[in-house]
Amino acid sequence: MPGVLLAGLPGTGKTTLGRALAARLGGHVLNKDVVRKAMFGPGRVAYSVEQDDLVQEWMVEAARWIWDREPGAWVFFDGRAYSRAYQRERVGAEFTILCRVRDEVARERLGRPHEAANRDWALYERLRESFEPVEEGHVVIDTEAPLEECVGRALAYLGIE
User: Fold this and answer.
1) What is the pTM of this model?
2) CA angle 23, 25, 31 (to 5 degrees)
3) How many domains are contained in the chain?
4) Distances (CA, A) of 35 to 66, 79, 91, 114
């Protein structure tokens, strides 16, 4: 069950990289922001840790459902920084890709429209201050590089091509 956790601060390119990898591998992207909006609807979206954790549990269950029907399907977990070790452990993904960029690049990207209404520089700074290190079993990808280069590095890490 090839699960891939896309970790990193807001604006570091997780969604862009995840979508490109899923397209290349015929995989599935489970995005917390999209799932949350679909599950709770307008007026009920709360950008709380509790709601984030609940949505994450649903995403893990959705991945299991996919794997039951498509053994070996690639599933990319996106839409959360995964700044805490417990968040990464709950997913139990085989692979972790940690996306990084310089602060000024993230700030520019955070100014663009996005699914998550709470995605801003203040959130970036809060998460940066509390981000727990990803200890081992991961790759760091600087998403300032061209997308194809990032995809190539990720595919090599995943053991493809």
Assistant:
1) 0.93
2) 55
3) 1
4) 15, 9, 15, 14
